[in-house]
Specification:
The complex is a heterotrimer.
Chain A lengths: L4 H23 L8 H19 L1 H7 L2 H24 L23 H24 L4
Chain B lengths: L7 H18 L6 H24 L4 E4 L10 E4 L1 H22 L6 H19 L3 H19 L5 H32 L4 H9 L7 H17 L8 H7 L2 H26 L2 H23 L4 H22 L2 H32 L10 H4 L1 H15 L5 H12 L4 H21 L1 H4 L15 H16 L8 H20 L1 H13 L12 H21 L2 H11 L5 H21 L4
Antiparallel strand pairs in B: 1-2
Chain C lengths: L1 H19 L3 H24 L18 H32 L4 H11 L1
Helix pairs in contact in C: 1-2, 2-3
Classes of the chains: A mainly alpha, B mainly alpha, C mainly alpha.
Chain lengths: 139, 575, 113
């Protein structure tokens, strides 16, 4: 994609804010609209903006391909692990086993926060990988 | 067996797919093939454990994760699900063994096939609407990927068309779920049954909801008018995938339609299915007769045989419903046998068209034999299995004379077109280069591959393992024979499984009357074959073949089908 | 009632887009519009029973029905997977045939066979 200075500057200035917004959506998912999947997609869109405007080689220095794949795989396994903790403690799969704190604070509602973060990372990494492979120039 | 373990039918293939992925990390350890074999052996073993209680009429339910209630996730297994799981696992197992023979299928192929299997098990065992939706989409996405696996351009186009039409269908299915949720607040099949039988369930919009659900599933099952994606998708896919798609994927969606129709208890659905099935059977066999590419011909036959199954279910009598399930089992067996043997033909000769392959019977007698088993089964010749199930359906349809005679004509057409197809094997070769037909060994295959075969078949030949390729063909033909010979006993078992009682009348398919009917069908079939392959017939065939629909017209046809269905349901007088 | 009509118009726009557009990417976008119309329909149904977000900071509050929202999250995820697959298929078709126009692709496919 032909690089113009507008795209270059805007993408570099804007994408950290998009990533920050994505992480906000993930972390406050149990208190306001948002959640794991939604935040993950916003995180991915921040990285895809960089991919489109900067090219895949430059973005690889910041988000190496192996790290992104690793995050995706580990995210899925971590989700399964959290689910199995519920079985280990005698209740069903994916039952809430952490204490439910005071409503309205961030560390409340049991383990939904951890699930949100795990899913957010996984989805963000997954969609980034998809777009990465679509945008990579074939050698 | 603990009650909750029916979820293992879905989980074990998923776990197996995880193991096939490990081969990507350790490419030297051959994990995939033993993992696949282990998965299917253990699933079939589980199925055998459940055989005795299911035959005695028990049902199993599991509420996943204790999230019960009106919006829970429930899986239930009864007799219908048992038979469905049986043919899904058996046919998928043999199709994958056929895929073992070709080294171009790497571990990601088996990964997607195992996910397809677990999705299909999920659809069969689903007892609530949203679980059904998710598993249908899992089956769909794996099917799109597997069709496009061959990386031929026409395969990718076929997969894209299937994707568009199928997504439209699922959107209509979601509309149906919307209607159900709005009126009942529950998504379980049991909640649906209560709603349909209550007085509120005879309002104006109930038939529309049911029509939306059935039409949405109908796109995947391919009855008229939703069938347009099937010939391309099933013919362009790689050979084991065609066998899987025609053999099991379309039937699994029909099992979901079956459950919906039974839960709603509505007569109009059955009448619609009866008529739709009859028209499907006729149209399918008509277009099948006109084709000259062998896999497209078989794919149109899939449409036509599904018409038998749907009409059998729609007729509503005990005999025809059992016949419909029996025909599902038989069709899974013989259709996958046919697709796999034609796949062998294409691999060995590199040609797709009927006119260019001749005289294979002399060079590959075993292939001709297994193909003969498949062709005789689908044409309904005793003592193979197609005969018993077709007779069951037709006897059950005796009260609907139009449907009865239409299915008769379909049998004649099926026989004619399989005579035409088997010309591959017995017609003498015309002036062709003999290198196509020389007896092939593995070394020869690698040499021939570069010049003729690689263009047409699109997969690089790295050696063909003939034992692995022929073993499923032989075993499937033996199964066809066994289910045919013991047809009466199997019919009784199926009757017990569905209706939980033994059949009241003994059904004996081996009567002189049935035999005479079959002989008449054979004569008329061969006569029609000569009609169709005459001079005038060939011209007519060419004209019909050129009426192929493009994607836009396909979509318009589909939408016209939805609108037509919606209007008929809307304007029908309430009974 | 006007809202249901608007959602219906959105759905019909998507359907017309799939049938009438010749560009493959426009067809995929139209499929997304259909999915979005259905999702809005479900959530609209859920919103009929209340007004607040279903986060019970205090135990009172007339909340929207959270069930359709949960169902629609699943539908959104499935829609995204199908869209991603459709786009990669379109990309492969583009590389194979050199054009994104469906009628030209079919013409080339027919000649090739």
């Amino acid at each position: 994609m032909k690089k113009t200075s507008i795209l270059d500057v805007i993408s570099r200035k804007l994408s950290p804010f998009i990533l920050l917004f994505g992480f906000y959506l993930v972390t406050y998912g149990h208190l306001s609209p948002g959640g794991g999947f939604q935040g993950g997609v916003v995180i991915a869109s921040g990285i895809v903006l960089l991919l489109l405007c900067q090219g895949t080689e430059r973005v690889q220095k910041l988000f190496p391909l192996t790290a992104v794949s690793f995050t995706e795989a580990v995210g899925f396994l971590a989700f399964l692990l959290m689910g199995f903790f519920g079985i280990l403690l005698g209740r069903g799969f994916l039952s809430n086993f952490l204490p439910i704190g005071t409503p309205g604070e961030v560390p409340s509602a049991g383990f939904i926060l951890i699930l949100n973060i795990v899913i957010g990372l996984k989805v963000g990494a997954g969609i980034t990988l998809i777009c990465f492979y679509l945008l990579k120039e074939e050698d | 067996m603990p009650e909750g373990s029916i979820v293992l039918f879905v989980i074990v293939p998923l776990a197996g797919s995880f193991f096939t992925l490990l081969e990507k990390i350790w490419p030297d350890r051959r994990i995939t093939k033993p993992a696949v074999v282990l998965v299917f052996f253990s699933c079939l073993l589980f199925l055998l454990f459940y055989a005795k209680p299911i035959f005695q009429g028990e049902e199993y339910r599991i509420v996943l994760g204790n999230w019960g209630g009106p919006i829970g996730i429930i899986q239930a297994m009864d007799g219908l699900a048992w038979v469905g799981l049986l043919f899904v696992y058996v046919v998928t197992f043999f199709a994958l063994i056929f895929a073992f023979s070709d080294k171009t299928y790497d571990s990601s192929f088996y990964f997607f096939s195992l996910i397809l299997t677990s999705g299909m098990a999920g659809v069969i065992l689903a007892a609530d609407l949203f679980n059904l939706f998710v598993c249908l989409e899992i089956v769909g996405i794996s099917a799109y990927i597997l069709i496009a696996y061959a990386k031929k351009e026409r395969a990718i186009l076929a997969s894209f068309k299937y994707l568009l039409l199928s997504s439209l269908g699922i959107s209509v299915f979601l509309l149906g779920i919307f209607g159900i949720y709005r009126n009942t607040g529950s998504l379980l099949f049991s909640g649906m049954a209560e709603y349909f039988s209550s007085p509120a369930g005879s309002a104006r919009e109930t038939p529309m909801i049911l029509a939306a659900l059935i039409a949405g599933l109908g796109v995947r099952t391919a009855f008229i008018p939703f069938h347009t994606w099937l010939p391309e998708a099933h013919s362009q896919a790689p050979h084991p995938v065609s066998a899987l798609l025609s053999g099991v994927v379309i039937k699994v969606t029909f099992i979901a339609v079956w459950r919906l129709a039974v839960t709603s208890g509505s007569m109009e659905v059955r009448v619609f299915l009866l008529w739709s099935g009859t028209i499907t059977a006729l149209v399918g066999v008509f277009w099948a007769l006109m084709q000259k590419e062998i896999k497209v011909l078989l794919a149109w036959h899939s449409v036509s045989q599904m018409g038998y199954i749907i009409a059998g279910f729609g007729a509503g009598t005990l005999l025809s419903i059992s016949g419909s399930l029996f025909h599902m089992l038989n069709h899974a067996l013989f259709k996958s046998l046919l697709f796999l043997s034609l796949g062998m033909v294409i691999i060995l000769t590199g040609e797709y068209s009927l006119k260019r392959i001749r005289g294979l019977g002399r060079k590959h007698p075993l292939l001709a034999l297994v193909f003969a088993f498949g062709a005789l089964s689908i044409a309904g010749i005793p003592p193979l299995n197609g005969f018993v199930s077709k007779k069951l359906i037709m006897v059950g349809l005796k009260e609907h004379p139009v449907a009865y005679w239409s299915l008769w004509i379909t049998s004649i057409g099926t026989l004619a077109s399989f005579t035409k197809l088997s010309a591959l094997f017995w017609k003498k070769q015309e002036k062709m280069s003999l290198s196509h037909l020389a007896p092939l060994e593995e070394a020869d295959l690698q040499e021939n591959s570069a010049e003729e075969v690689s263009q047409n078949s699109g997969m690089e030949k790295t050696g063909l393992n003939r034992v692995a390729a022929f073993f499923p063909l032989v075993v499937l033909s033996i199964f066809c024979l066994i289910t045919g010979v013991f047809g009466r006993q199997i019919f009784e078992m199926i009757h017990v499984l569905i209706f939980r009682q033994s059949p009241s009348r003994v059904f004996n398919p081996w009567t002189m009357e049935n035999l005479w009917e079959t002989i008449i069908v054979v004569f008329l079939g061969v006569f029609s074959y000569f009609l169709v392959t005459s001079r005038r017939g060939e011209v007519f065939q060419g004209k019909i073949r050129s009426l192929r629909l493009s994607l836009d017209w396909t979509l318009l046809f589909l939408l016209a089908g939805f609108i037509f269905l919606g209007l008929t349901v809307f304007l029908l007088p309430r009974s | 009632m006007i809202r249901i009509y608007l959602i219906l118009i959105l759905f019909l726009l998507g359907v017309f887009g799939i049938v009438l557009c010749r560009n493959l990417i426009k067809k995929v976008i139209a499929l997304n519009i259909i999915n979005s119309a259905l999702i809005i329909l479900f959530i609209y149904l859920g919103s009929l029973s209340g007004k607040d977000a279903p986060i019970l900071l205090d135990q009172t509050g007339i909340i929207v029905d959270p069930v359709p929202q949960a169902l629609m999250l699943t539908a959104i995820v499935v829609g995204i997977c199908v869209t991603a697959l459709a786009l990669s298929l379109v990309y492969k078709l583009y590389k194979a045939y050199g054009t994104l126009d469906i009628q030209e692709i079919e013409k080339k496919a027919r000649e090739h066979a």
